[in-house]
Design a protein that fits this description.
It is a single chain. The chain contains two helices and 14 strands, in the order E-E-E-E-E-E-E-E-H-E-E-E-H-E-E-E. A hairpin with a 6-residue loop joins strand 5 and strand 6. It starts with 5 loop residues before the first strand and ends with a strand. By secondary structure, it is mainly beta.
Length: about 240
């Protein structure tokens, strides 16, 4: 049976209570994202801007990039706490960006272990100030005892970069370089070449320890049974 490129993502919290009397810089909401393989062989993927990105680079982490849907009040669903930036941040151009994706500071790569060998665990620590930074619903308007649902954005389970491959960063991928392109298909075509971009010398690059992504569309990330948590505001 062929291996399948399928990942399951779930969300938990060790403490479902948020204290409104905390200092602005105090972490008040801790969210843990668990990612597991459903089959053999580990998978390494780019996680930049996804729910699996917990802040390696300013304004690129998953919470900033809409990986969590607005917290929604159970008693009044119109009351929401928005965590993401709703504008269009200017990241600028990267004319001198390294061809090796692993050397680009705004990208992040993680390995999900084989089934039965553990899971990828990513934790988001959100301070009281950060919780309300982009929200129209202010802290002063939240009621003690009010409960909110925290849910992952199904469109942000994986990175918009799409890059992934078989293997682990500490194993067979150690010392390799990551090329931007997908590996060629059976017809020798590369799906993500830019218009006018020259076809790379794939065999030559592979001899020089370059790794190409598997086809972006072949990686499936799905929310598990624990796709949301409920939190309660306390004094």
């Amino acid at each position: 049976m062929a291996d399948t490129s399928h990942l399951t993502v779930s969300l938990t919290t060790p403490n479902p209570r948020i204290s409104l009397s905390s200092l602005p810089s105090d972490p008040v909401l801790s969210l843990t994202v668990h990612t597991q393989r459903t089959n053999a062989r580990p998978i390494t993927l780019c996680t930049a801007g996804s729910i699996l990105d917990n802040g390696h680079h300013a304004r690129h982490d998953g919470v900033f990039r809409d990986a969590l849907l607005p917290l929604t009040s159970i008693s009044d669903p119109k009351r929401k706490i928005q965590l993401h930036f709703s504008g269009f941040p200017n990241y600028g151009s990267q004319p001198k960006a390294s061809a090796n994706l692993l050397e680009r500071d705004y990208l992040r790569f993680e390995t999900v272990p084989s089934k039965g060998e553990g899971e990828l665990v990513v934790t988001h620590e959100i301070s009281l100030e950060r919780l309300f930074r982009y929200s129209d619903l202010r802290k002063e308007a939240v009621k003690v005892g009010e409960k909110f649902i925290v849910r992952m954005n199904p469109k942000r389970l994986g990175s918009t970069e799409g890059w992934w491959t078989w293997g682990s960063l500490e194993g067979e991928l150690n010392g390799k370089k990551f090329a931007r392109c997908e590996r060629p298909d059976r017809e020798g075509e590369i799906g993500n070449l830019m218009p006018g971009e020259k076809m790379p010398d794939v065999k030559g690059m592979e001899r020089e320890v370059w790794v190409f992504s598997e086809p972006f569309h072949e990686l499936t990330l799905e929310a598990g049974e624990d796709e949301e948590v409920t939190v309660e505001f306390v004094e």
